[in-house]
Amino acid sequence: MNKTYNNPILPGWNSDPSCTFVKEWDNTFFCTTSSFLAFPGVPIYASKDLANWKLASNALNRPEQLPELSTNGQQNEGIWASTIRFHKGTFYLITSYVSLTKWQPKLLLFTTTNPYDDTAWSDPVHVENPANDIDPDIFWDDDGKTYMALASGIYISEIDVVTGATTEPFKVWNGTGDRNPEGPHLYKKDGYYYLLIGEGGTETNHSVTIARSKDFRGPYEGYANNPILTAKNTENYFQTVGHADLFQDASDNWWAVALATRSGPAWEIYPMGRETVLVPAKWEEGQWPVLDPARGRMSGPLSRTNKHIPGDAPFVDDPDIVDFPPGSTIPKYFAFWRPPKTSLFAVSPPGHANALRISPSRVNLTADNAFQPSVDGLGFVARKQTATLFDYSVDVSFNPTVLNEEAGVSVFLTQLQHIDLGIVNLPDRSGSSLAPMLRFRIEASGKPNTIVPETKVVPIPSSWLGGPIRLMVSATSDSEYRLSAAPASKPKDVKVVGTASAAIVSGGSGPFSGTLVGAYATSNDGNGKTPAYFGRWRYRPVAQEIDGGVFVYPK
Questions:
Q1: What is residue 555's predicted lDDT score, i.e. its pLDDT?
Q2: What does the pLDDT read at residue 167?
Q3: What CA–CA distance (Å, rounded) separates 205 from 373?
Q4: ω before 461 within 30° of 0 (cis)?
Q5: What whole-number distance in Å separates Cα of residue 402 and Cα of residue 315?
Q6: DSSP secondary-structure letter at 116?
Q7: Alpha-carbon Rg of the chain, whole angstroms?
Q8: Which among 118, 137, 178, 182 is annotated as catalytic?
Q9: Distant-in-sequence, close-in-space partners of 86: CB < 8 Å, separation ≥ 6
Q10: E-only strand ranges, 306-372
Q11: Where are the alpha helices (DSSP H) in 164-253?
Q12: Is 405 designated active site?
């Protein structure tokens, strides 16, 4: 019996999904998505019913697992697409780290026997990459051999999961002729080897195509009715649909996940970037899979609702009520931009219970050419924007003494595209002394020719001083953010400081990522050392847009 559900199932920045169903782990679905420079990285989500998902663990949770992630490179470097599979009691997650200084992707194979424990994930095995490409897939054939497929080929090698050694790759299929054949996944069914890939690039020409062969080495025959999933040349709200993975549930129903962007055909405003959608599939014996188009409201043979998933992480669409009590840690679903300099952060330090102390980093969110992430650190921690409309707020206790000391909140896509509201120490009107001011400022150098509001500086009313100030970000529509402030003791005395278009944080230097909202502290390359204390962290999803102008609201 079919039930209705809404896409995206993993809202917010959750791109390049790969999923697997594991009967041995209490009939649970596990999905992973790409994380680029975010840390912890390589998230693994778990669900019992395909509709309710929570973060199970992060495979990349220790800086020493990937020291390269602390390099000051381009904004879309880092961990790209992964594949997750379960084989003989072990979870395997294979992925690639990409630096764009030189195209030489590093292939990494993580393993665990407990997907709910960050610490159980192994250090990665470095897998040889003779094809010099990305998007690794892992596949076990009936003869017990393990194989890896890679993009832009598609190339296949036999691999040793212990040593990372590979055989010389052989090329099996180049897709239907569109550019960027990538994101391969191999399946064996009804005597055929099926090869599922993405084509067309991860923009509005994106599509999912499939081929098959009786012989693993080919030749592979493309399906006559390719692509089997796409939104190109449509007016659909969900665009860029592609990079899919296929799996079954406990009742042998077939499903596919794919990435998609909620932009409509204009493809101009999509701050949450590429998200994960779920579509029902039919795959009859000896036939090709048939997938439903990706839409916001869908119907399929979902099992009954089951939210009994281990772990203390919230579900992906839950609100934040985070008070940083003594003895607690920063939630594992929060994100840093690259591995953090841990000395910049402290939960409930002495004299400041129920607060997160962020000591100022030398650089601000934009940083500079001299920025060394592991040395300087970035005083910034955030969470993903997971709803079209939302309210975010945090209470900031900050008493700056030095010029340009700053603490605030940000809507952040990359270091070259962010919208900030800060409390910053600046000369007062007389110019003879310093005073804390509210400053609304936008960084958009990652998206040239973008028209942005001018920087706005507003004196803080004297009645607000001496207590925490509540800084707020609201997405008031699918295309605009409103940044405002109020004294925490009188939260209704709101002063709107600025508004900004969501186009500023769509695409540009962050074509593969999506928006984060969070808190920062910086000396702005000055002499300031004053820490900021952030308390009463709140994030409330207000509404999810599932079609142009069609919103659904939390129950």
A1: 81
A2: 97
A3: 35
A4: no
A5: 41
A6: T
A7: 24
A8: 182
A9: 20, 22, 24, 25, 30, 92
A10: 320-322, 336-337, 345-347, 356-358
A11: none
A12: no
